[in-house]
Design a protein that fits this description.
By secondary structure, the chain is of the alpha/beta class. Helix content is 32%, strand content 25%. It contains ten helices and 19 strands.
């Protein structure tokens, strides 16, 4: 047991932070999760769990309610191509539902929680510590542990404090997301990706009466204006009432110089993010959670760096190539190319989905 406040402090109580905490408890570690927000925590995202992400959750003992996902479809104004998952389906799950399921499992596993905002972090060679904001802006006493995992999101304060951020993407290339739910019976068990103009719209069934629509592209403020450029989807939604307020995120590309600093490890979006185009953020994040805990148990942070690169290679390479194409004159050819080569499209989907 640690002589500090825990064997492991996890900064960030989102899905990857909670998965890390559950993994660590299964390895026998005393875990403290630090999170400033009251749950359940929401986020602008596509909400489609690929088969690999769903399997990772089930291994952790988490079975969130949602809507079965049979595969992925790409559509433009005139064409469509689809691929159905091979052995196992995925699941559309509202982010708040997923958060509640993970938080309950973490609590059952004995994870402890501290409400607070991290304002300082130290990554020493033999231990690590974080300080939380106290009353009247003062810092609270340090929380110490042999290890810290920062899973504090796309714009990770811990990543910035440790100097692990790389230069931001130039403004003209930045992409953002905005998500809203609609009260309408899902018309398909596929995640539909509608390509139009400068945006893509991800449509995910999340229960028997609700679909989520996440729109990606240049900075957006009005999902209705974006949907006007996607007549096929606008017609499907018809006069459906919004089932949630609009929620935004971005810029999406976040690059890191490294994933470790001393005994602090970065996981999930905090460790770097390419784009949401392939919908694989959670699958990769859950794999990182498992690898981070394995590296901590082995007292070998360099192992985590190696495994992070290996686990994210396909995601980074394929998504980066797709993002480049989406910003280029080739954009209008993406769906036609997938239609002409359905086997290649399917093999890429299967590789990412696992």
């Amino acid at each position: 047991m640690s002589t500090g406040d825990a064997d492991l402090i996890v900064v960030g109580g989102g899905p990857v932070g909670l998965a890390t905490a559950i993994e660590a408890r299964a390895a026998g570690l005393d875990v403290l999760v630090v999170e400033p927000r009251e749950g359940p925590i929401d986020k602008a995202c596509g909400e489609g769990l690929m088969p690999g992400a769903l399997a990772a959750l089930q291994r952790l003992g988490v079975e969130p309610a949602g809507h079965a996902l049979g595969g992925i479809a790409y559509l433009d104004a005139r064409r469509a191509v689809e691929h159905r998952f091979g052995a196992h389906p995925g699941r559309g799950v509202r982010r708040t539902v997923l958060h509640v399921a993970l938080a309950e499992r973490a609590a059952d596993a004995g994870v402890r929680f501290e409400r607070g905002r991290v304002v300082a972090v130290e990554a020493g060679p033999g231990n690590a510590s974080v300080r939380l904001a106290g009353r009247n802006g003062a810092e609270s006493p340090a929380l110490d542990a042999p290890w810290v995992v920062a899973a504090d999101g796309l714009h990770s304060p811990v990543r910035r404090m440790l100097g692990l951020e790389r230069a931001p993407q130039r403004a003209s290339h930045r992409r953002y997301g905005i998500r809203r739910h609609y009260r309408v019976e899902p018309w398909s068990d596929l995640v539909e990706v509608h390509w139009a103009g400068a945006v893509e719209a991800y449509v995910t069934p999340v229960d028997a009466h609700t679909v989520g629509v996440a729109i990606l592209g240049p900075r957006l403020s009005d999902p209705d204006a974006a949907l006007a450029d996607i007549p096929r989807l606008a017609e499907r939604l018809g006069a459906a009432e919004p089932a949630s307020s609009s929620r935004g995120a971005g810029p999406l590309l976040q690059r890191t110089a490294a994933r470790t600093s001393g005994r602090v490890l970065l996981a999930g979006d905090a460790s770097g993010y390419v784009d949401a185009l392939t919908g694989e953020g959670l699958r990769v994040g859950f794999a990182q959670a498992r690898s981070a805990v394995a590296a901590i148990v082995a007292a070998d942070p360099a192992r985590y760096e190696r495994e992070w690169r290996s686990e994210t290679r396909d995601f980074r390479m394929l998504t980066s190539a797709l993002v480049v194409a989406a910003r280029s004159p080739l954009r209008d050819r993406i769906v036609p190319a997938a239609v002409r080569a359905p086997r290649l499209f399917g093999s890429i989907v299967e590789r990412l989905a696992r």
